[in-house]
Specification:
Fic-like fold; about 260 residues; mainly alpha; single chain
Length: about 260
């Protein structure tokens, strides 16, 4: 864990990152939520404690009975099977967003000293969404599309092997000048976006992965300057092999 003396500027940068994700999901980032995130970043309280408080205060059911398929949605709903047996999508998304934010803050206090590989991306997803979904961190087995078709499930493992082997050979983008770093970061962000390895939560897991990778490489990202709609369009273009829009976005926010 980091020191309790995490710099105020770093705490605010992490809050800006989480706020970006929260608003990109369509939610308003309240002062209460910001304070909860800040208290984790400043190590005043553990994420586990805040999550338990949320479960208690919202009277969430913890009597989970695993269905036959834990990796699918409930019949006649669009809600993934979850530990609280919530079938109403709007309610589930709010619970998911809140807990994912707390876990993101927790992960941002970690001293990351590992290789930025597929296993690490899966561990981020597992930790970020594991309080809600039994399927967190597991590779999807169904086709996925959102304005474009993502990698077919049977090719996810082999495609991931190619992407992350190349990233390792590129030394996780360390010791690069800014222009090269931004160009390569855009490429890998586009590749992982196209991979889309999980049923849900791909964007948030990948953003945390690349945010940590960027800091490890000696760069930062000012998330307060990122426009969510513009980033989405850039991500879609990158999936189609056109990285220029994403490069343009990163040019404005990579420090």
């Amino acid at each position: 864990m980091v020191s309790v003396f995490m710099k105020t500027s770093r705490v605010q940068a992490c809050i800006d990152y989480i706020k970006f994700n929260h608003e990109a999901e369509g939610f308003e980032f309240s002062e209460e939520e910001e304070q909860s995130i800040r208290s984790i970043l400043e190590e005043e309280v553990e994420a586990d404690e805040l999550i338990q408080r949320y479960i208690d205060s919202h009277d969430l059911s913890t009597s989970y009975h695993p269905p036959k398929d834990e990796f699918s949605v409930y019949p006649h709903t669009s809600s993934l099977v979850n530990f609280f047996s919530i079938k109403e999508r709007t309610k589930l998304r709010k619970v998911e967003a809140y807990m994912a934010n707390l876990r993101s803050a927790e992960m941002l206090t970690d001293s990351v000293q590992n290789t930025y590989d597929f296993a690490y991306l899966k561990s981020i997803h597992s930790r970020m969404f594991g309080d809600v979904y039994p399927s967190a961190g597991t590779i999807r087995t169904t086709t996925a599309a959102k304005r474009t078709v993502f990698c077919s499930p049977e090719f996810i493992e082999s495609a991931a092997e190619d992407i992350f082997t190349r990233l390792r050979k590129d030394r996780y983008l360390c010791q690069m000048d800014r222009e090269t770093f931004i160009n390569d970061l855009a490429f890998y962000m586009g590749e992982v976006e196209a991979l889309h390895p999980f049923r849900d939560g791909n964007g948030r897991a990948a953003r945390l992965f690349f945010y940590q990778l960027s800091m490890n490489a000696g760069y930062d990202i000012d998330w307060s300057l990122v426009d969510a709609d513009r980033l989405l369009e850039a991500d879609i273009s990158a999936i189609d092999g056109d990285y220029q829009l994403l490069i343009d976005v990163l040019e404005e926010v990579v420090i």
